[in-house]
Amino acid sequence: MKFLLIHTGGTIGMVPGPKGLVPEAGRVEAAVAAMLPEHVTLAIHVFDPLLDSADVGPGHWNAMLDLIAAHPDHSVLVTHGTDTMSYTGAALSQTLAGTGARVMLCGAMAPLGAGEGARANLNLAVVTLLDPNWTGVNCAFARRILDAGALVKHDTVGDDAFRAVPQDPLPVPSRRRFDPDRRVAVLALTPGLPAAMVRAALGTLDAAVLRVFGAGTVMHDPDLLAALSEATARGLRLRAVSQCEAGGLVPGSYAAGAPLWDAGVENGGRETPAAAFVRLWLDTPG
After folding, report:
1. How far apart (Å, rounded) are the C-alpha atoms in residues 81 and 87?
2. What is the mean pLDDT of residues 122-142?
3. CA–CA separation, 211 vs 203, rounded Å?
4. Rounded average pLDDT over 205-213
5. Do 96 and 103 meet the contact criterion of CB atoms below 8 Å apart?
6. pLDDT cut 90: percent of the chain above it
7. Region of residue 20 (left: phi > 0; alpha: psi -120 to 50; beta: else)
8. φ and ψ at residue 31, rounded to 5 degrees
9. What 3-state class would DSSP assign to 139?
10. What is the pLDDT of residues 118-131, one digit of tens each?
11. Containing structural domain, residue 220
12. Residue 74 has what pLDDT?
């Protein structure tokens, strides 16, 4: 069996420094190597510099995908910080849909050596990847295997930091790499939100996820609704998801949601904000 470790950075591979946690070269690599049986061949790619996950974006997703493509017969472990794990999980899940890939994301809320959480997460990831019958794009965290394309980080300090929100089956994507020049953002509707701010933001974007209320409602602000209609009329893609963690959108449940769909906003259904964000980034015209 062949095994590829892609170490991007994150808390799991850090140690205490004079001003807080800092990356330590070789820490994650040594831990993974020690967990693998002797017959397993290990290939390692370490991002240089190691990344705080807040800095991970489309260019890094492309780099991960290129590495995965260059090792087609390998089981792949991606170690990653937790702050943007949900975005990377969605990116890899959607781009690898239908490929039969064997990819596991793994991180931790505390570094290796600071409690058992990090080592337990790594061990779960390795054991799962060694199972020849397992396929998918998942995340090993807090003694559970989670759907990497459905992650929501719901706790900033607890070891059990992630939940997986049920998602609809993934379509085969129209493309499997990200255009780094595409401008996509997530905008949350809030009470009293100025329509002028929304109009200005949409004027700088190619697509946007709108986090709307409940099952899919929006405030009755004619200027705001006009801004959404103007944006979709000029070809901007807007995709709505709920600000609630679970349940998704149900168009038609409330009359207060009708203006969204009348404005040409797409229904993101049960998608997490990260999943909708990635879908809009991949669904590039042309």
Report:
1. 11
2. 96
3. 18
4. 97
5. yes
6. 86
7. left
8. -65, -45
9. strand
10. 999 999 999 999 99
11. 184-282
12. 97
Q: How far apart are CA 195 and CA 254, in angstroms?
A: 22
Structural contact between residues 88 and 61, judged by C-beta atoms closer than 8 angstroms: yes
Residue 280 has pLDDT above 50, yes or no: yes
Whichever domain contains 268, its CATH number is 3.40.50.40
Phi, psi at residue 272, to the nearest 5°? Answer: -70, 160
277 touches 90 (CB < 8 A): yes
Q: Give the HSE-up count for residue 246: Cα atoms under 13 Å, Cβ half-sphere.
A: 6
Q: Give the DSSP letter string of 9-77.
A: E-GGGEEEETTEEEE-TTHHHHHHHHHS-TT-EEEEEEEEEEE-GGG--HHHHHHHHHHHHH-TTEEEE
User: pLDDT category, 285, cuts 50, 70, 90?
Assistant: low
Give 23-75 pLDDT, tens digit per residue: 888 999 999 999 999 999 999 999 999 999 999 999 999 999 999 999 999 99
CATH code (residue 78)? 3.40.50.1170
Q: Is 136 exposed, middle or buried (0-12, 13-18, 19+ CB in 10 A)?
A: middle
C-alpha closest to that of 142 among 122, 119, 166, 159: 159
The predicted structure's pLDDT at residue 286: 43
Residues 23 and 158 occupy one common structural domain: yes
Segment among 16-30, 153-167, 204-218 with least mean pLDDT: 16-30
Alpha-carbon distance of 124 to 122, in angstroms, equals: 5
CA dist 206 and 235 (Å) reads 8
For residue 136, is it left (φ>0), alpha (ψ between -120 and 50) or beta?
A: left
Split into its structural domains, the chain has a count of 2
* Mean pLDDT of the residues in the chain: 94
CB-based burial label for 64 (10 Å; 0-12, 13-18, 19+): buried
